[in-house]
Design a protein that fits this description.
This protein is an alpha/beta fold. The protein has two domains: about 90 residues, 3-Layer(aba) Sandwich (Rossmann fold); about 120 residues, Rossmann fold (3-Layer(aba) Sandwich), CATH 3.40.50. About 40% of the residues lie in helices and about 15% in strands. The protein has eleven helices and eight strands. The strands form two sheets. Strands 5-4-6-7-8 form a five-stranded parallel beta sheet. Strands 2-1-3 form a three-stranded parallel beta sheet, sandwiched between helices. Helix 7 crosses helix 8. The mean pLDDT is about 95.
């Protein structure tokens, strides 16, 4: 990579490391007060390779800072009822402070039924309708971790959102929709695009801030971008390839996230931060006291 590009890169790894260092100290303080170790339970259905890689990375970070991990693995042909029962067992276990159902959940399982079984207190990835509704309204809840991590990254790089023209490509309930809501709450003017959006390049071309999460490798071309745009690539495709064609985009962008090393580390750091916050709340310890 050319040195002239380095100043443009929004490196999530560096910020994530700082967050993890802070969490390590907070967990030690929680344990010193007689609290339990924060415990994060993850349910994975099937054997999606990208999900497995994410969970291995997450588990490694957990062990580094003192979070206990519980992994529940279910077969790909698991029924909706079996998945909901697995979630419910973790909800009822007081030693589990946070629950994560790993995406994607294979068809024809009703993943929404599983998400809705997670109560607000343990919904650290903001997947339930209650969590999403509260995020939209700006009320306290754990927001979805990838958009929350992106917002943290934008603040770190001092990207002004007040009045900015923001374009989000992708409308999933765990990324695009909460992302749009968080940007609106930060006073950006937001356009939410999807597979049926007409003339997508023209809409992207007016974005001050562009966030792409659509699952199509190197789809967004640099020639579509307004010069000086801030580009957040939240895509993850086989071979560690994002949704933005980095080579053509880096020359146009003022700031851009690399893939890997941009959004991904922030997602994991945010999951772990929410886990520690959930544990403290369930133990009745003010997080700000840690």
């Amino acid at each position: 990579m050319h040195s002239s590009e380095d100043g443009k890169l929004m490196r999530g790894g560096e910020l994530a490391r700082r967050i993890l260092d802070e969490l390590r100290a907070k967990i030690a303080a929680l344990r010193a007060r007689g609290g339990a170790a924060p415990t994060l339970a993850t349910i994975m259905v099937g054997d999606d390779p990208a999900s497995h890689a994410y969970l291995v990375a997450k588990d490694k970070r957990c062990s580094e800072i003192g979070i206990e991990c519980r992994r529940v693995t279910l077969a790909k042909d698991t029924t909706t009822q079996r998945l909901v029962e697995a979630v419910t067992a973790l909800v009822e276990d007081a030693s589990v402070h946070a629950i994560l159902v790993q995406h994607p959940v294979p068809e024809p399982i009703d993943k929404r039924a599983a998400f809705e079984a997670i109560p607000l207190a343990k919904d650290v990835d903001g997947v339930s309708s209650a969590s999403l509704g509260r995020v939209i309204l700006g009320m306290p809840a754990f927001p979805s971790c990838t958009p929350a991590g992106i917002m943290r990254l934008l603040r770190e790089y001092q990207v002004s959102l007040d009045g900015a023209d923001a374009v989000v490509v992708g409308r999933s309930p765990i990324l695009g929709r909460p992302m749009a809501s968080m940007l609106i709450n930060a006073h950006a003017t937001v356009t939410l695009c999807h597979s049926r959006t007409r003339d997508l390049p023209a809409i992207i071309g007016r974005a001050d801030v562009l966030i792409v999460a659509m699952g199509k490798p190197r789809f967004v071309q640099g020639g579509w971008l307004e010069r000086g745009a801030v580009v957040i690539d939240a895509g993850y495709n086989a071979g560690n390839i994002g949704d933005v064609d980095f080579d053509s985009a880096v020359g146009q962008a003022a700031l851009i996230t690399p893939v890997p090393g941009g959004v991904g580390p922030m997602t994991i750091a945010t999951v772990l931060e929410h886990t520690v916050q959930a544990c403290a709340a369930q133990l009745g310890v003010p997080y700000t006291d840690l």
